């Protein structure tokens, strides 16, 4: 595999992570609306997956009641959303120069690993059903896969030496001024 094709793979993998973070961030704002739509779409399947539908109903009712009585509590999920968006911005560095900014990819893998103890410890304390804890754990698994693949490619790229910088596009190069005589 050439360095350029390896770099392209790294960028694709990192874009997948960034898109996931942005989508997770943006969807953390309208939780009550999302759970209402999710509940409506799952309602026909209630006889087949009653525990899931009951859980989504409980979450929606909790969000709706809390929103009516204590709207300021949603500020916590606003910060959760913001954190996802900020972490996504952090990946701008590896998208520009993955070798120099490999530390961001490592940070992302560590964060994905941190999902497991959080979900396994706090989930039962907060009354999260085991099947939903598995959903939470999947975010760590699905997040670490593209990051680990990108990390492996970055390390190979690092060992292969510096990439040749592409020639700048003539349209992006400022015209040179004539030298004064």
Describe this structure in words.
With 181 residues, the protein is an all-alpha fold. The chain has one domain. The chain has seven helices and no strands. It has helices at 3-27, 31-42, 50-69, 74-90, 92-96, 102-125, 130-159. The longest helix is centred in the last third of the chain and has 30 residues, at 130-159. The N and C termini lie far apart (50 Å).
Gist?
The protein is mainly alpha-helical and 181 residues long.
**Helix and strand pattern:** HHHHHHH
Class of secondary structure makeup? mainly alpha
Question: Radius of gyration from the CA trace?
Answer: 22 Å
- Total helical elements: 7
Task: Kindly estimate the percentage of residues that lie in beta strands according to DSSP.
Answer: under 5%
Query: Which range best describes the helical content: under 10%, 10-25%, 25-40%, 40-55%, 55-70% or over 70%?
Result: over 70%
What is the CA–CA distance across the termini?
A: 50 Å
Q: How many β-strands, per DSSP? A: 0
Overall mean pLDDT score?
90
The shape, in one word, is elongated
Largest sheet: none
Low-confidence stretches: 164-174
How many domains? The number is: 1
Explain the layout of strands and helices:
Layout: H1 3-27, H2 31-42, H3 50-69, H4 74-90, H5 92-96, H6 102-125, H7 130-159
Helix pairs in contact: 1-4, 1-7, 2-3, 6-7
Task: Please name the defining characteristics of this protein.
181 residues, mainly alpha
